Amino acid sequence: MVRETELSPSDFIYPIFVVEGRSVRHPIPSMPGIFNLSVDQAVEEARLVKNAGIPAIILFGIPGAKDARGSGAYDNAGVVPRAIRAIKELFPDLQIVADVCLCEYTDHGHCGVIQAQEVQNDATLPILAQAAVAYARAGADIIAPSDMMDGRIGAIRKALDEARFESLPIMSYAAKYASGFYGPFREAAQSTPQFGDRRGYQMDPANVREALKEVAQDLEEGADIVMVKPAMAYLDVIRRVKTQVNVPVAAYNVSGEYSMVKAAAQNGWIDYDRVMMEILTGIKRAGADLILTYHALDAVKLL
After folding, report:
1. Average pLDDT for consecutive 10-residue bins of the chain (303 residues)?
2. Which residue numbers are catalytic?
3. Domain ranges in the chain?
4. Which CATH fold would you assign to the domain 9-300?
5. Helix/strand/coil (H/E/C) assignment for every residue in 220-280
6. What pTM was computed for the model?
């Protein structure tokens, strides 16, 4: 009766990794219970999500071939557009968020175009915009740029408007930190950088004021939802963002956070259900309106 924070299935967005092939359901070793899925299997995973009462998924694509510019990201026949169309055909009410980034599609593993081993911010923007339009045309409900290039929200908004998708919302990875918690995701998405790291364009974990600046800039450029990533070590950032904006705030409970809980539970060190729910409640208590989490299907069974 007096509980201040309540979790609901409607709080969750469930990530799905889509790969080429058919009948592919390949376990990700560092993420127990999570799989790389071909389009047909992604449809079946979406069915589970829909039946569980979770309102949305976010799609990440791993192409069959990669190149220096990440051209697979904007291929209209790529795995993500195909998955969007197939899922929407069967489950039109399931909201599909399309992640927009180049790291899964580039042979060097960085989130933008590379020249002399440096990411070229401005040269990357048209490619990101082209990918966003490709996902919009396939039927995505929300575009979610995760690359952290400066100015990408404005570029994507302009491209979507010009393509007659003026009403399509953008969920910006506004405060995305250069975190050590992304390791399992990079295995799942085959996106580990081939040289250097992403600290040049992702945020310093020590900074909060910078996060507020990034959020404000993305909102000015047209973002409709702002995200903080990761979640567990950045609850204070979620709270600061929540108190300063009047739009929905999302938080990404990332792969490393998920895998630590799974590994500890498998070793019998913690009660998985209890710790999972405590973490998700903490993220919502901090101020997140939406939680992207690999725990979603497990969590709804307890709600």
Report:
1. 96 97 95 96 98 98 86 91 98 97 83 77 91 97 92 96 98 95 80 60 92 97 98 98 97 97 98 98 98 98 96
2. 176, 229
3. 9-300
4. TIM Barrel (3.20.20)
5. HHCCCEEEEECCHHHHHHHHHHHHHCCCCEEEEECHHHHHHHHHHHHCCCCCHHHHHHHHH
6. 0.94
